[in-house]
Amino acid sequence: MEAVVFDCDGLLLETESRWTMAEERVCQAHSVAFSMDLKRQMLGSSIERAGELLAAWVGLDRNHGPQMGKELLAAYRHVVDENGVEPMPGVVELLTALHRRVPLAVASNTHEAETRRVIAAAKLPDVFEAVICAGGAIPPKPAPDLYLTACAVMGAEPSQSVAFEDSPLGAAAATAAGMFVIGVPSTVGVTLSTHRVLTSLREITATDLIG
Residues 195, 180: contact at Cβ < 8 Å? Predict the structure, then answer.
């Protein structure tokens, strides 16, 4: 195996509950009830796509998507500031065991500034060779570009590398990139089509991945 690439939200960090709180606040501000159906639709989406979904949910047209995305991101920042963020179970142990044995990277649909902000807030070990995020010339998942870029930065062949994902969009992106994909669902009711599915990163070790 040449490299390991991790999604961030809901995979490395327990941020999905924070996104849910932010989504609830935005819905409340527009006097519309939040639902887990909306949550499942938004799981793993870019901010831009999440804004479009929120706009439709509260009864606005697609042109309001950018503003809804801004409202969601602002609410999310407040939620993180108020509640903090923690690594998902098994993350620190796995990252520490893999560090210096294989290149590691993050591939996230969330903007880079926000991704780096929550990684720092969670005090994850400084082990990543790259943090690749959607934006600019890199389209969001389910396009494979985030994973292809992460592998390219590390000098790794995607077909010889592993991706960890918690969402269908992310799993589709990593699969399209030609990687071996391990799914760790973060949201109830979400099914992942991946090479392997875990309930927690506690179920896998560095030895399982690289021998």
Answer: yes
Tokens coding 121: 């807030």
Average pLDDT in the chain: 95
Alpha carbon distance 30, 56 (integer Å):
12
Whole-angstrom distance, CA of residue 185 vs CA of residue 77? 23
pLDDT tens across 2-21, in order?
999 999 999 999 999 999 99
Contact 178, 158 (CB under 8 A): yes
What mean pLDDT comes out for the span 131-146?
96
Residue 203 CA to residue 165 CA, distance in Å, equals: 14
DSSP class of 140:
P
Residue that has been written with the tokens 């809804």 in this structure: 68
- Give, in degrees to the nearest 5, the angle at Cα 100 between 94 and 101: 70
Task: State the Cα–Cα distance between residues 116 and 54, nearest whole angstrom.
Answer: 24
DSSP string, 93-136: HHHHHHTTTS-EEEEESS-HHHHHHHHHHTT--S--SEEEESBT
Partner residues linked to 135 by β-bridges: 138
Which two structure tokens, joined as six digits, stand for 167? 């969402």
Exposed/middle/buried for residue 93 (C-beta within 10 Å: 0-12, 13-18, 19+): middle
